[in-house]
Amino acid sequence: MLKKDKTKSVLSKRQNITEKLPNIWELEFKKPFEIVNGKRRWNFPPREYNTSGIYILKERSKIIDLRMALSLYNMVLKLNKVKGYNTEIYTVALCCVPKESLKKSLVHFTKQIAKYPLGCTINQLYDFWEKDSMRDPSMFLQFQTPYEMKENIKRACTYRRFDYRYRSGVYLIRENGVVVYVGMSTSNLYQVLYNHFTPYPSDRAGLHYRVEYSQTLNIHSYDVAIIDIPGINKSDGKITELSTGEIRAKVSDLEKRLIAIYKPRDNRRDVPLDVSVESNKEDKSWLQGEEEAPF
Protein backbone atom coordinates (compact mmCIF):
# COMPACT_ATOMS: atom_id res chain seq x y z
CA MET A 1 0.00 0.00 0.00
CA LEU A 2 2.85 2.35 0.80
CA LYS A 3 4.31 1.88 -2.69
CA LYS A 4 0.97 2.69 -4.36
CA ASP A 5 0.45 5.78 -2.21
CA LYS A 6 3.98 6.96 -2.99
CA THR A 7 3.45 6.46 -6.74
CA LYS A 8 0.16 8.40 -6.64
CA SER A 9 1.86 11.19 -4.73
CA VAL A 10 4.67 11.48 -7.29
CA LEU A 11 2.24 11.47 -10.25
CA SER A 12 0.08 14.10 -8.58
CA LYS A 13 3.12 16.26 -7.90
CA ARG A 14 4.25 16.04 -11.54
CA GLN A 15 0.79 17.00 -12.77
CA ASN A 16 0.64 20.01 -10.44
CA ILE A 17 4.04 21.19 -11.65
CA THR A 18 3.06 21.04 -15.35
CA GLU A 19 -0.16 22.92 -14.59
CA LYS A 20 1.89 25.73 -13.05
CA LEU A 21 4.25 26.02 -16.01
CA PRO A 22 4.17 29.39 -17.83
CA ASN A 23 2.93 29.77 -21.39
CA ILE A 24 5.78 29.87 -23.87
CA TRP A 25 4.85 33.41 -24.92
CA GLU A 26 5.30 34.51 -21.29
CA LEU A 27 8.94 33.44 -21.22
CA GLU A 28 11.69 36.01 -21.71
CA PHE A 29 13.94 35.33 -24.68
CA LYS A 30 17.32 37.02 -24.49
CA LYS A 31 20.86 36.71 -25.76
CA PRO A 32 22.77 34.06 -23.79
CA PHE A 33 25.79 36.35 -23.58
CA GLU A 34 27.08 39.77 -24.62
CA ILE A 35 30.56 40.95 -25.48
CA VAL A 36 31.70 43.68 -23.07
CA ASN A 37 35.24 45.07 -23.39
CA GLY A 38 36.23 42.04 -25.45
CA LYS A 39 34.96 39.62 -22.79
CA ARG A 40 31.89 37.42 -22.76
CA ARG A 41 29.31 38.33 -20.12
CA TRP A 42 26.61 35.70 -19.47
CA ASN A 43 22.99 36.82 -19.09
CA PHE A 44 22.11 33.59 -17.27
CA PRO A 45 23.90 33.48 -13.86
CA PRO A 46 25.36 30.00 -13.16
CA ARG A 47 24.07 29.95 -9.57
CA GLU A 48 20.51 30.53 -10.73
CA TYR A 49 20.53 28.25 -13.77
CA ASN A 50 22.78 25.37 -12.74
CA THR A 51 19.67 23.25 -12.37
CA SER A 52 17.39 21.04 -14.46
CA GLY A 53 14.82 22.52 -16.80
CA ILE A 54 13.70 23.27 -20.35
CA TYR A 55 15.89 25.06 -22.88
CA ILE A 56 14.31 26.87 -25.87
CA LEU A 57 16.36 28.33 -28.74
CA LYS A 58 14.91 30.88 -31.16
CA GLU A 59 16.38 32.00 -34.49
CA ARG A 60 14.99 35.48 -35.02
CA SER A 61 11.24 34.88 -34.53
CA LYS A 62 11.21 31.09 -35.15
CA ILE A 63 11.75 28.51 -32.40
CA ILE A 64 14.22 25.98 -33.79
CA ASP A 65 15.19 23.87 -30.78
CA LEU A 66 13.60 22.66 -27.56
CA ARG A 67 15.35 20.36 -25.10
CA MET A 68 15.33 19.20 -21.52
CA ALA A 69 18.58 19.51 -19.60
CA LEU A 70 19.93 18.45 -16.22
CA SER A 71 21.98 21.66 -16.21
CA LEU A 72 20.52 24.62 -18.08
CA TYR A 73 23.72 26.60 -17.63
CA ASN A 74 25.83 23.85 -19.26
CA MET A 75 23.37 23.73 -22.16
CA VAL A 76 23.82 27.45 -22.76
CA LEU A 77 27.60 27.09 -22.52
CA LYS A 78 27.51 24.71 -25.49
CA LEU A 79 26.38 27.60 -27.70
CA ASN A 80 29.90 28.95 -27.34
CA LYS A 81 31.15 25.96 -29.36
CA VAL A 82 28.64 26.26 -32.20
CA LYS A 83 30.35 27.30 -35.43
CA GLY A 84 28.98 30.48 -36.95
CA TYR A 85 26.92 31.30 -33.86
CA ASN A 86 25.58 34.85 -34.20
CA THR A 87 24.39 36.63 -31.05
CA GLU A 88 22.31 39.00 -33.15
CA ILE A 89 20.18 36.16 -34.54
CA TYR A 90 19.73 33.67 -31.69
CA THR A 91 17.96 34.16 -28.36
CA VAL A 92 17.32 31.71 -25.53
CA ALA A 93 14.62 31.16 -22.91
CA LEU A 94 15.10 28.92 -19.88
CA CYS A 95 12.50 27.44 -17.55
CA CYS A 96 13.66 25.72 -14.35
CA VAL A 97 11.80 22.43 -13.80
CA PRO A 98 12.41 19.59 -11.29
CA LYS A 99 14.17 16.57 -12.77
CA GLU A 100 11.18 14.25 -12.29
CA SER A 101 8.92 16.56 -14.36
CA LEU A 102 11.22 17.18 -17.31
CA LYS A 103 9.46 14.89 -19.81
CA LYS A 104 5.97 16.23 -19.12
CA SER A 105 7.26 19.78 -19.24
CA LEU A 106 8.90 19.09 -22.61
CA VAL A 107 5.57 17.87 -24.02
CA HIS A 108 3.81 20.93 -22.55
CA PHE A 109 6.09 23.38 -24.36
CA THR A 110 6.24 21.30 -27.56
CA LYS A 111 2.45 21.48 -27.87
CA GLN A 112 2.50 25.21 -27.26
CA ILE A 113 5.15 25.76 -29.93
CA ALA A 114 2.81 24.01 -32.38
CA LYS A 115 0.27 26.80 -31.80
CA TYR A 116 2.65 29.41 -33.21
CA PRO A 117 2.31 30.17 -36.95
CA LEU A 118 5.19 28.87 -39.07
CA GLY A 119 4.45 31.38 -41.81
CA CYS A 120 1.90 33.90 -43.02
CA THR A 121 0.39 31.71 -45.77
CA ILE A 122 -3.07 31.43 -44.19
CA ASN A 123 -3.40 35.21 -43.78
CA GLN A 124 -2.28 35.73 -47.37
CA LEU A 125 -4.90 33.25 -48.57
CA TYR A 126 -7.77 34.93 -46.73
CA ASP A 127 -6.74 38.32 -48.16
CA PHE A 128 -6.44 36.75 -51.61
CA TRP A 129 -9.94 35.24 -51.38
CA GLU A 130 -11.70 38.45 -50.34
CA LYS A 131 -12.59 39.30 -53.95
CA ASP A 132 -13.18 35.73 -55.16
CA SER A 133 -13.31 32.78 -52.75
CA MET A 134 -12.70 30.26 -55.57
CA ARG A 135 -9.43 31.69 -56.93
CA ASP A 136 -6.49 29.30 -57.33
CA PRO A 137 -4.02 30.09 -54.48
CA SER A 138 -1.04 28.19 -55.95
CA MET A 139 1.12 31.32 -56.04
CA PHE A 140 1.15 31.39 -52.22
CA LEU A 141 1.86 27.69 -51.68
CA GLN A 142 5.39 26.37 -51.22
CA PHE A 143 5.57 22.85 -52.60
CA GLN A 144 8.52 20.60 -51.80
CA THR A 145 9.33 16.92 -52.20
CA PRO A 146 8.31 14.88 -49.13
CA TYR A 147 11.68 13.06 -49.07
CA GLU A 148 15.30 13.64 -49.95
CA MET A 149 18.12 11.16 -50.36
CA LYS A 150 21.04 11.26 -47.95
CA GLU A 151 24.25 9.29 -47.54
CA ASN A 152 23.75 5.93 -45.77
CA ILE A 153 20.01 6.69 -45.49
CA LYS A 154 17.45 5.37 -47.91
CA ARG A 155 15.31 8.50 -47.62
CA ALA A 156 14.80 11.34 -45.16
CA CYS A 157 11.70 13.44 -44.52
CA THR A 158 11.99 17.04 -45.68
CA TYR A 159 9.44 18.28 -43.14
CA ARG A 160 10.76 18.31 -39.58
CA ARG A 161 8.82 16.24 -37.07
CA PHE A 162 9.62 18.90 -34.45
CA ASP A 163 7.76 21.54 -36.49
CA TYR A 164 4.65 19.53 -37.37
CA ARG A 165 4.17 16.82 -34.73
CA TYR A 166 1.40 18.64 -32.79
CA ARG A 167 0.39 21.14 -35.47
CA SER A 168 -3.02 21.65 -37.10
CA GLY A 169 -3.56 22.50 -40.73
CA VAL A 170 -4.20 21.41 -44.30
CA TYR A 171 -1.84 19.80 -46.82
CA LEU A 172 -1.92 19.34 -50.59
CA ILE A 173 -0.24 16.49 -52.48
CA ARG A 174 0.76 16.95 -56.13
CA GLU A 175 1.51 14.17 -58.58
CA ASN A 176 3.51 15.29 -61.62
CA GLY A 177 2.55 18.91 -60.89
CA VAL A 178 -1.20 18.29 -60.46
CA VAL A 179 -2.97 18.44 -57.06
CA VAL A 180 -4.37 14.93 -56.49
CA TYR A 181 -5.23 15.07 -52.79
CA VAL A 182 -6.13 17.59 -50.08
CA GLY A 183 -6.15 16.46 -46.44
CA MET A 184 -6.20 17.88 -42.93
CA SER A 185 -5.17 17.22 -39.35
CA THR A 186 -6.07 18.95 -36.10
CA SER A 187 -3.38 17.31 -34.00
CA ASN A 188 -0.43 15.84 -35.93
CA LEU A 189 0.20 17.11 -39.45
CA TYR A 190 3.49 15.24 -39.65
CA GLN A 191 2.08 11.76 -39.09
CA VAL A 192 -1.11 12.24 -41.12
CA LEU A 193 0.82 13.60 -44.11
CA TYR A 194 3.49 10.88 -44.16
CA ASN A 195 0.84 8.18 -43.70
CA HIS A 196 0.10 8.71 -47.40
CA PHE A 197 3.61 7.57 -48.30
CA THR A 198 3.63 4.54 -45.98
CA PRO A 199 2.31 1.09 -47.08
CA TYR A 200 -1.20 0.38 -45.80
CA PRO A 201 -3.21 -2.90 -45.85
CA SER A 202 -5.37 -2.95 -48.99
CA ASP A 203 -8.24 -4.79 -47.29
CA ARG A 204 -8.98 -1.96 -44.85
CA ALA A 205 -12.20 -0.07 -45.57
CA GLY A 206 -14.74 2.38 -44.14
CA LEU A 207 -13.38 5.17 -41.95
CA HIS A 208 -9.92 3.59 -42.08
CA TYR A 209 -9.70 4.19 -45.81
CA ARG A 210 -6.44 5.90 -46.74
CA VAL A 211 -5.13 7.22 -50.03
CA GLU A 212 -1.46 6.23 -50.22
CA TYR A 213 1.29 6.67 -52.75
CA SER A 214 3.99 4.33 -51.46
CA GLN A 215 3.64 2.03 -54.49
CA THR A 216 4.04 4.85 -57.01
CA LEU A 217 6.58 6.96 -55.14
CA ASN A 218 9.37 5.87 -57.50
CA ILE A 219 7.22 6.12 -60.62
CA HIS A 220 5.69 9.59 -60.35
CA SER A 221 7.03 12.88 -59.04
CA TYR A 222 5.36 13.98 -55.79
CA ASP A 223 5.56 17.22 -53.89
CA VAL A 224 3.65 18.56 -50.93
CA ALA A 225 2.54 21.93 -49.54
CA ILE A 226 1.43 22.56 -45.95
CA ILE A 227 -0.76 25.38 -44.66
CA ASP A 228 -0.59 25.47 -40.87
CA ILE A 229 -3.44 26.90 -38.79
CA PRO A 230 -2.13 28.76 -35.70
CA GLY A 231 -3.67 27.89 -32.34
CA ILE A 232 -3.28 31.41 -30.96
CA ASN A 233 -4.72 34.83 -31.69
CA LYS A 234 -2.80 38.07 -31.26
CA SER A 235 -4.83 41.23 -30.77
CA ASP A 236 -3.76 44.55 -29.21
CA GLY A 237 -0.51 42.96 -28.08
CA LYS A 238 -2.35 40.21 -26.18
CA ILE A 239 -2.11 36.52 -27.06
CA THR A 240 -5.08 34.22 -26.52
CA GLU A 241 -5.41 30.50 -27.27
CA LEU A 242 -8.06 29.20 -29.65
CA SER A 243 -10.29 26.37 -28.48
CA THR A 244 -10.11 22.93 -30.10
CA GLY A 245 -13.49 23.60 -31.71
CA GLU A 246 -12.33 26.90 -33.22
CA ILE A 247 -9.19 25.30 -34.65
CA ARG A 248 -11.12 22.36 -36.09
CA ALA A 249 -13.65 24.71 -37.72
CA LYS A 250 -10.88 26.74 -39.39
CA VAL A 251 -9.06 23.63 -40.62
CA SER A 252 -12.24 22.02 -41.95
CA ASP A 253 -13.34 25.20 -43.73
CA LEU A 254 -9.95 25.57 -45.45
CA GLU A 255 -9.88 21.90 -46.50
CA LYS A 256 -13.38 22.12 -48.04
CA ARG A 257 -12.50 25.28 -49.92
CA LEU A 258 -9.30 23.81 -51.39
CA ILE A 259 -11.13 20.62 -52.41
CA ALA A 260 -13.77 22.74 -54.17
CA ILE A 261 -11.08 24.74 -55.99
CA TYR A 262 -8.78 21.90 -57.09
CA LYS A 263 -11.29 19.01 -57.30
CA PRO A 264 -8.48 16.51 -56.51
CA ARG A 265 -8.61 13.12 -58.20
CA ASP A 266 -8.07 11.08 -55.02
CA ASN A 267 -10.42 12.80 -52.57
CA ARG A 268 -13.22 10.34 -51.95
CA ARG A 269 -16.51 11.19 -53.62
CA ASP A 270 -18.56 8.83 -51.42
CA VAL A 271 -17.56 10.53 -48.15
CA PRO A 272 -18.92 13.94 -46.98
CA LEU A 273 -16.39 16.76 -47.16
CA ASP A 274 -16.28 17.07 -43.38
CA VAL A 275 -14.80 13.54 -43.15
CA SER A 276 -11.15 13.52 -44.19
CA VAL A 277 -7.89 11.70 -43.70
CA GLU A 278 -7.96 13.01 -40.13
CA SER A 279 -10.27 10.07 -39.35
CA ASN A 280 -7.36 7.60 -39.43
CA LYS A 281 -4.98 9.58 -37.21
CA GLU A 282 -5.76 7.29 -34.29
CA ASP A 283 -4.84 4.16 -36.24
CA LYS A 284 -1.23 3.46 -35.27
CA SER A 285 -0.98 -0.21 -36.20
CA TRP A 286 1.79 0.58 -38.68
CA LEU A 287 4.00 1.88 -35.87
CA GLN A 288 4.70 -1.71 -34.74
CA GLY A 289 5.57 -0.60 -31.23
CA GLU A 290 7.83 2.24 -32.32
CA GLU A 291 7.38 5.72 -30.90
CA GLU A 292 8.15 7.43 -34.20
CA ALA A 293 7.20 6.70 -37.79
CA PRO A 294 9.61 4.24 -39.47
CA PHE A 295 11.01 6.56 -42.13
Overview of this protein structure:
The strands form 5 sheets. Strands 4-3-5 form a 3-stranded antiparallel sheet. A 3-stranded antiparallel sheet has the order 9-8-10. A hairpin with a 2-residue loop joins strand 8 and strand 9. It is globular, with a radius of gyration of 22 Å. It is α+β, with helices and mostly antiparallel strands. The chain contains 8 helices and 12 strands.
The low-pLDDT segments are 1-11, 270-295
Average pLDDT figure = 78
The shape is globular
Please work out how many helical segments DSSP would assign.
8
Strand content: 15-25%
Biggest sheet: strands, sense, closure? Answer: 3 strands, antiparallel
Topology overview:
Blueprint: H1 2-19, E1 33-36, E2 39-42, H2 46-49, E3 53-59, E4 62-69, H3 72-77, E5 90-96, H4 102-113, H5 121-128, E6 147-150, E7 153-157, H6 161-164, E8 169-175, E9 178-185, H7 189-195, E10 222-228, E11 232-235, E12 238-241, H8 244-262
Antiparallel strand pairs: 1-2, 3-4, 3-5, 6-7, 8-9, 8-10, 11-12
Key attributes of the depicted protein:
single chain, 295 residues, alpha+beta, 12 strands, disordered N terminus
Summarize the structure.
The protein is of the alpha+beta class and 295 residues long. It contains 8 helices and 12 strands.
